[in-house]
């Protein structure tokens, strides 16, 4: 079975984002970029399934600028076999629906039995591509995966929900989105990093799949969160109750 894994190039999670002075977006100049952490988990899960003999080939796919090749090379160094970059102009933010339509086109070419994506990207937190992709393909989906087990023609997904865990059994082919506690991604070794440079990486464009990436949403303003005000100390419970009433909280 072939597995298709979706990855995205985002600001490194250790970096504090800076808003542009004119409020038009996030400043990406001289900022460290890396693979979306949830997508790292997706790549790791595909590799583990391959090590178990369930998956025979792993194809990593990304929609982004030319620099996203670095992110795909990271996936190849971790253990993916091939990569596909659907390249867009630098600075173009492709919306989730367009991304899902593009990946649907890639799925049509690759015919994977299992599609694994991170549950969301940490730059926009949309949490939409996996669900939209499953709907466009008409395939079952297991979102927020905490555990993934392939059983014959089905995949059993233990999902993280507000009330605890929910287990669903999906007929393959299916779409799975990964949550934080599914696994701990491995570090790519130096030999594998060197090998990744020679692994196949195809470059496509949205036009190859007939997808219009023109934005349907307009960002009016981007601003940093308000600075948290300092707290105060009260002498006793009566003073606390009086302060709560004063603030109109209760």
From TrEMBL:
Its cofactor is AMP. One of its GO terms (molecular function) is electron transfer activity. The keyword Electron transport applies. The electron transfer flavoprotein serves as a specific electron acceptor for other dehydrogenases. It transfers the electrons to the main respiratory chain via ETF-ubiquinone oxidoreductase (ETF dehydrogenase). Heterodimer of an alpha and a beta subunit. Belongs to the ETF beta-subunit/FixA family. PANTHER family: ELECTRON TRANSFER FLAVOPROTEIN BETA-SUBUNIT, ELECTRON TRANSFER FLAVOPROTEIN SUBUNIT BETA. This is Electron transfer flavoprotein subunit beta. It comes from Novosphingobium arvoryzae.
